Amino acid sequence: MRDGYVARWRGREYQASPDGDDIRLYQPEPGEGFEEIRAGRYVRVLPASEIEDLAYVRTTCTWKGQPFIVLGEHDAWLRVEYTGGRWPVAEAMRLEVFDFGVYQGWAPAAEVTDLREQRV
Questions:
Q1: DSSP H/E element including 49
Q2: Separation CA 108–CA 62 (nearest Å)
Q3: 93 neighbors 64 (Cβ within 8 angstroms)
Q4: Residue 106 neighbours by CB distance under 10 Å
Q5: What are the tens digits of pLDDT across the range 6-24?
Q6: Which of 96, 113, 114 is nearest to 105 (CA)?
Q7: pTM value?
Q8: Residues 33-61: pLDDT tens digits?
Q9: Which is nearest to 20 in space by CA: 48, 42, 44?
Q10: Phi-psi category of 75—alpha, beta or left, where left has phi over 0 and alpha has psi -120 to 50?
Q11: What is the torsion angle, in degrees rounded to the nearest 10, for the CA atoms of residue 38, residue 41, residue 46 and residue 51?
């Protein structure tokens, strides 16, 4: 499940993070020009002008007939955030209030439908 920036550079897609006029590219293995920042995490900083494409990828789904964003997964569960904007629905689903107007919970992966990635 992906939720974050991705960049294409030299025909390959990387996890990415915009930083002003630069883009940070991340990969799990060593590579030319990549610097280890911790075990299994390498970064290379490039000018944005060298990046072929930059997009935000978000995984969405439907759970119990309601729209959600998938934030992560663990075993057979998905961490989801409700995007329907209706407090009574969030309350009836027993979602946690994460912040004002932000409701999250754990959904059994087997109950989730319409799982798909969207580039925004």
A1: none
A2: 12
A3: yes
A4: 14
A5: 999 999 999 999 999 999 9
A6: 96
A7: 0.74
A8: 999 999 999 999 999 999 999 999 999 99
A9: 48
A10: left
A11: -170
